Each structure stands twice: as structure tokens, then as C-alpha cells.
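Dear colleague,

Following up on yesterday's call, I've attached the two folding results inline so they're easy to grep. Please treat them as preliminary; we haven't cross-checked anything against experimental data yet. The first protein's sequence and C-alpha cells come first.
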Amino acid sequence: MRAIFGPLQPQFDEKDKPIPDTFDKARKSHYGHCMLLGALMCGRQDAIARLQSLKPRTRYRIEAELLRLHTRGRGRPLEVAPDPTGGRAELTIVS
């Protein structure tokens, strides 16, 4: 994890509300979101604590994305498309 984003473990105030920190700002970028997802997929406890500190709507969205990533097939996705010249179907890689 890059040091410029700070620790992944959330910090709480005396009312048990999460305090916005440097990772909270980075989490809202594409890179920070992917970093959080990767840490969650690895099962890091600090990432799970960060996920639990988010608002319910955000937490549910990230949990649904994790479920989709965990249940996807291995390898690159393939698509079977008919040959435009009327020949046999050919496999193409979906990007």
C-alpha cells in the first residue's frame, strides 16, 4: 500500500464516528477504490474495518462488487460472434 494514502485502518472520534483522513480522500478515486477492493479480496482486517465504517449504501455497493468479482469466471471473457462473411462462428475477446 502506498504510504502517501496513509493507513487503511479507520480512526474514530469520541462519538464513534469515523474521522475523515487521507485514505478516505484517496478511496474516492479510481485507484483508491481498486486498492480498497484488492485489500478486501485479500481479507485484510484493516480493510474490513474501513468497509464497516462506511455509510450503508456505499458498503452494500462495495460488497455487491466484491461478490461479483469473487463469482466471476477465470480468465478473460470471451464472446461467440457470428462471422460477418457467413462462415462459422468465431471467438473474440471482450475488452
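Below is the second protein, in the same order (sequence, then structure):
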Amino acid sequence: MLNQQFGTLLLAGAFLAAGLAWVITLLGAWPRTSNTSPLMALFAGVCACAYVATAILTWRRSRLAAPALMVAMGLLLFPARYLVPGGQGSQVASVIIIVVGLTGGWYLRRMRKVTTQ
């Protein structure tokens, strides 16, 4: 653990915390009656799996960490369009999510190249 770079520890911890938050959301959105739609529970389960997988791949410094980050950030675009329906808020949120995802993917690829040399 001490030989990990601080950025790797920080990213993996953030992704793990986000994955656990999605697990809690999954438990809260789980359908309890037959009239409840399971769509939010399914979406929360997919997001939880994506973020936990991204945390594990980042911790292991896998070459698949950057694409997993792109998938995890891309999943946030679905609820972002419902923040302000028909307004400019969803476009701003989409731009922010895309910029953060691309920057994080670039960092993970660069980190992977530095550690393999």
C-alpha cells in the first residue's frame, strides 16, 4: 500500500466511495411492491458495478482502468439530462462530466505508461 502513488490511492478511494454510494442507492430504490418500477434499481446496480470495477482496476493499475472510467462517467450522462429537462443545465452537466472523464482517462493512461517503464 505504501508503494502506490498518491493519485492512484485517491482515485481508487473516490471510485470505491462512489460505488458504495450507488449500492446504498440500489438498496433504497429496490422495488418493494408490484407497482414500483425496477428501472432505478437496475440503473443503480449497473452504476455500482461500474464504479467498484473502476476502483479495483485503478488500484491494480490495469490497462482497462481508463476505459472503465469512461464507462462509469458515461453512465452519469443518463440522469444528467433529467436535471433540467429542456434547459441548458443538462448540457453544462454533460460537458463537465465529459471533461472530467477525459482528464481522468488521460491521467490513468499516463500513469500506466510511467509505471510500466
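For the second protein, one point worth flagging: The chain is about 75% helix and 0% strand.

Best wishes,
A.L.
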